[in-house]
Specification:
With 288 residues, the chain is of the alpha+beta class. The strands form four sheets. It has a seven-stranded mixed beta sheet, with helices on both faces. Strands 2-3 form a two-stranded antiparallel ribbon. A two-stranded antiparallel ribbon has the order 10-13. β11 and β12 form a beta hairpin. It is globular and about 55 Å long. The protein has two domains: 213 residues, no CATH class; 58 residues, Alpha-Beta Plaits (2-Layer Sandwich), CATH 3.30.70.20. It has twelve helices and 13 strands.
């Protein structure tokens, strides 16, 4: 495919074959990071220099190569219940990155649940670990073949149950795209700010996550000021002013966690064009 190089192929193999080691080395938590760290920093410095030049010419930067799109529960559910092979390319309005913005689902009912590499690297991780959903081929078969003790095949119905349970725990659904994974969508991760490397990178200024296309709003006449929403918000977008919840639209990613965690149902999601287009797979398929 255009732009997919031999380096991407090697990178993709390493990433999918050894994801737990990959994440720990990348975050500096593995002893190997001391050995490969200096070399990796030199490569990264060169990459950043080249990316800066490329960006000035309208090219790509780091976040363009590996990123997630926030998807509320309903849209995440659509992604694991697709009943036809699809090819949706160049989704710039939905996936606002220069690379890795295609959705090409081959055998979409082939779904594998994998122990989350981000959670697995933590000494006291959020539970359960088996929450990363690898969707379609060639990704699902590769993962289950190489990680038989950390992954298993599941039906779409179980994938929906996992999404619902993670939503109930206040975790955020992200559709992940990566250059080394054939420049396209390959997984839904259910993320928490305490474990997720991408969320932590995003909070430090690396724009790895795109908002859902929605923003949350609170009805002050209904809000009970119980603070459940603020405690649950993974993006620290909620504060309390004048006795009720105030949601910062600039910080809100439109994940919908606060909606499901609000006992009096005072919060709802609303479309916000400033947050991009939603990843509505059914609408994209039908062109609606």
């Amino acid at each position: 495919m255009p732009g997919f190089t031999w380096f991407d192929r090697i990178h993709g193999y390493v990433y999918a074959r050894w994801p737990y080691l990959y994440i720990r080395v990348a975050t500096g938590e593995h002893p190997m990071a001391r050995v490969v760290g200096p070399m990796a920093r030199r490569i990264l410095a060169w990459f950043n220099q080249e990316s800066t030049k490329s960006s000035m010419d309208g090219g790509t930067d780091f976040a363009d190569t590996y990123h997630g799109k926030v998807v509320p529960l309903q849209q995440a559910t659509q992604l694991v219940t697709v009943d036809e092979e699809i090819r949706l390319v160049d989704l710039e309005q939905v996936i606002p990155y220069a690379r890795a913005r295609d959705i090409v689902l081959k055998n979409p009912d082939h779904i594998v649940v994998l122990d989350c590499p981000c959670r697995a690297r933590r000494p006291d991780p959020c539970q359960p670990l088996a929450v990363c959903l690898i969707i379609g081929e060639p990704f699902a078969s590769f993962i289950v073949d190489h990680h038989p003790h950390r992954s298993r095949w599941i039906a779409p119905e179980e994938a929906v149950s996992i999404l619902q349970a993670e939503d109930g725990r206040g975790h955020v659904h992200h559709a992940f795209f990566k250059d080394a994974m054939l420049d396209r969508f390959y997984a839904i991760c259910n993320c928490c700010a305490c474990c997720c490397g991408a969320m932590q990178a995003h909070r430090t200024g690396v724009p790895m996550l795109a908002p859902s296309g929605y923003v949350a709003r609170a009805d002050g006449s209904v809000c009970a000021a119980c603070r459940s929403c603020a405690d649950a918000c993974q993006f620290a977008a909620i504060s309390f002013l004048h006795g009720f919840a105030h949601i910062d639209p600039a910080t809100c990613m439109g994940c919908g966690v606060c909606v499901s965690q609000c006992p009096p149902e005072a919060i709802s999601l609303h479309r916000d064009p400033a947050k991009g287009e939603p990843l509505d797979i059914r609408g994209l398929i039908t062109g609606g």
